[in-house]
Amino acid sequence: MINRVVLIGRLTKDPDLRYTPNGIPVATFTLAVNRTYTNQQGEKEADFINCVTWRKQAENVANYLNKGSLVGVDGRLQTRNYEAQDGRRVYVTEVVAESVQFLEPKNSRTNAPEKDEPLPSDGYGDPFGDSDDPIDVSDDDLPF
């Protein structure tokens, strides 16, 4: 049997970090994942998927991600239930994130250059970018 979930989306709010009575960190967050199609009005719709992660990964998520962060999640679907204070049974379906990948640099949305602003050159760009000449590579230059 297979229970595997792979998601790419943006956090809808800052992650919530808590600790179990035994001191184990647990972080919960919700991902907004765009659907691949549009509705009748031509607008994209999204699904809002609750995720939970544990231990060191939970602390990393809480420390380095915030509302709007783009992440990739690999995990499994889990349904749990508990009894609410009013005595009714509550069912929760969520993704247990076994791996959370940060898909953009921290603060990249706040420090991103405007569309027309050129990116600064670090001197390590394409060395052949300005040349229309063919690249001369002889067989002696190849390591195999």
TrEMBL record:
<keyword id="KW-0227">DNA damage</keyword>
<dbReference type="GO" id="GO:0009295">
    <property type="term" value="C:nucleoid"/>
</dbReference>
<dbReference type="InterPro" id="IPR011344">
    <property type="entry name" value="ssDNA-bd"/>
</dbReference>
<keyword id="KW-0238">DNA-binding</keyword>
<dbReference type="GO" id="GO:0006310">
    <property type="term" value="P:DNA recombination"/>
</dbReference>
<dbReference type="GO" id="GO:0003697">
    <property type="term" value="F:single-stranded DNA binding"/>
</dbReference>
<dbReference type="InterPro" id="IPR012340">
    <property type="entry name" value="NA-bd_OB-fold"/>
</dbReference>
<dbReference type="GO" id="GO:0006281">
    <property type="term" value="P:DNA repair"/>
</dbReference>
<keyword id="KW-0234">DNA repair</keyword>
<keyword id="KW-0233">DNA recombination</keyword>
<feature type="region of interest" description="Disordered">
    <location>
        <begin position="103"/>
        <end position="144"/>
    </location>
</feature>
<dbReference type="InterPro" id="IPR000424">
    <property type="entry name" value="Primosome_PriB/ssb"/>
</dbReference>
<dbReference type="GO" id="GO:0006260">
    <property type="term" value="P:DNA replication"/>
</dbReference>
<comment type="subunit">
    <text>Homotetramer.</text>
</comment>
<keyword id="KW-0235">DNA replication</keyword>
<dbReference type="Pfam" id="PF00436">
    <property type="entry name" value="SSB"/>
</dbReference>
<protein>
    <recommendedName>
        <fullName>Single-stranded DNA-binding protein</fullName>
    </recommendedName>
</protein>
<feature type="compositionally biased region" description="Acidic residues">
    <location>
        <begin position="129"/>
        <end position="144"/>
    </location>
</feature>
<comment type="function">
    <text>Plays an important role in DNA replication, recombination and repair. Binds to ssDNA and to an array of partner proteins to recruit them to their sites of action during DNA metabolism.</text>
</comment>
<feature type="short sequence motif" description="Important for interaction with partner proteins">
    <location>
        <begin position="139"/>
        <end position="144"/>
    </location>
</feature>
